[in-house]
Amino acid sequence: AAMASGDLSVVAEAALAEGESALSRFIIQVFQPVKPMLAEPGDDVDAAVQQLGEAAVEFKLDGARVQVHKAGDEVKVYSRHLREVTGAVPELVETMRSLPVRELILDGEVIALRPDGRPYPFQVTMQRFGRKLDVQRLREELPLTPFFFDALAIDGEALIDEPQARRFEALARVVPTPLVVPSLITGDPTKVSDFLATALAQGHEGVMAKSREAPYAAGSRGRAWLKLKSAHTLDLVVLAAEWGNGRRQGWLSNLHLGARDPERGGFVMLGKTFKGLTDEMLEWQTRKFLELEIGRDDYTVHVRPEVVVEVAFNDVQASPQYPGRLALRFARVKRHRPDKQASEADTFASVAQIFTRATGGEPPPRA
Which residues are catalytic? Predict the structure, then answer.
């Protein structure tokens, strides 16, 4: 019931006031958005295929997640967080009205595409969803294209408990092929790898591998959907570390990462991460950073820039938060590199090149 209502507190109130019979009204219905099903990162293609067997493999787009509801000519669009954003996407409303179906609830993404069909960076797409916008002007300058990958209900029939194979088949019957995310069905790791390479070559994030038997687990993140991407790696220098919380209490955990800057000297901070660190790594680096300490405040120990770590990340994005105006997206530590000196770490120029290759544009001017 909580999944279908999108609001646990509302369900709990009804159950307390009216008993179990009240839950029957919390079925999936038009204009009552449900929390989106989420994916876990996959280790690699071989592991994903071994886990899922024959799977549905789809392009993973770096757009804005949308849930679209239609009843007759009335259309409402909801964001990933169930906020109504209908007014920001008039072209999506028009597309839904054109579909020859009375009622629909679809899950998908909208994305801004360049004239050659390659996607703009995520941040560009999100310019369409600001608080106060000249919607018509933005629509002309930055049109959005929808790609749907799931059908939650069609003409009053709830589909969330149906397997992915049936939901996707239902989607393909009512939505034109150009508006359905590119996909294939395979259990062959080579074909998955080739499809992943195609997605990356077209500028997309990677692919999703989905169990064909799994229902739509609204609001849940599980292993029925796996994200497969081609991660970048860089060797970066630790500039500082923050004390951890919870089970990491007493360990220096969140690392401040910097790239070498031969042009200006020193290092350029690119972000922070505590992801990927094992207990053994935390124990070692806490001892090491305390040896290298040059100053501290209540939360952070600043260190001599000597420890190099290999960091995997998905892409580089513009960020006003740091002097270099660039930051790593979804960074995680793969390993410490005691075999490398800070003078051998990757440079800020290398980071800027990754940004340019991904976006087709120049990095923002540095502070």
Answer: 60
Q: What is the pLDDT of residue 36?
A: 94
163 contacts 214 by C-beta, under 8 angstroms:
yes
Nearest to 241 by CA among 313, 297, 320: 297
Contact 366, 325 (CB under 8 A): yes
Contact predicate 185/56, CB 8 Å: yes
Please choose, from the candidates 65, 71, 95, 17, the residue with its C-alpha nearest in 3D space to the C-alpha of residue 218. Answer: 65
CB atoms within 10 A of CB 99: 16
If one counts the domains in the chain, the total is 2
Which of 17-26, 208-217, 338-347 shows the lowest mean pLDDT across its residues? 17-26
% of the chain residues with pLDDT over 70: 93
Using the predicted structure, report yes or no on whether residue 294 has a pLDDT greater than 60: yes
Instruction: Say if residue 215 is in the same domain as residue 248.
Output: no
Q: Which has the closest alpha carbon to 362: 121, 3, 63? A: 121
Q: Examine residue 10 and state whether it is found in any structural domain, yes or no.
A: no
Q: Specify whether 236 is located in the same domain as 255.
A: yes
What's the half-sphere exposure (Cβ side, CA atoms, 13 Å) at 213?
A: 5
Task: Identify the CATH number of the domain in which residue 33 sits.
Answer: 3.30.470.30
Whether the model clears a pTM of 0.85, i.e. scores above it, the answer is no
Asked whether 144 and 125 are in contact (CB, 8 A), the reply is yes
Radius of gyration over every alpha carbon of the chain, rounded to an integer in angstroms: 23
Instruction: Give the model confidence (pLDDT) of 126-155 as tens digits.
Output: 999 976 678 999 999 999 999 999 999 999
Which residues, listed in sequence order, are joined to residue 366 by a DSSP beta bridge? none
Q: Which residue has the tokens 């408990």?
A: 161
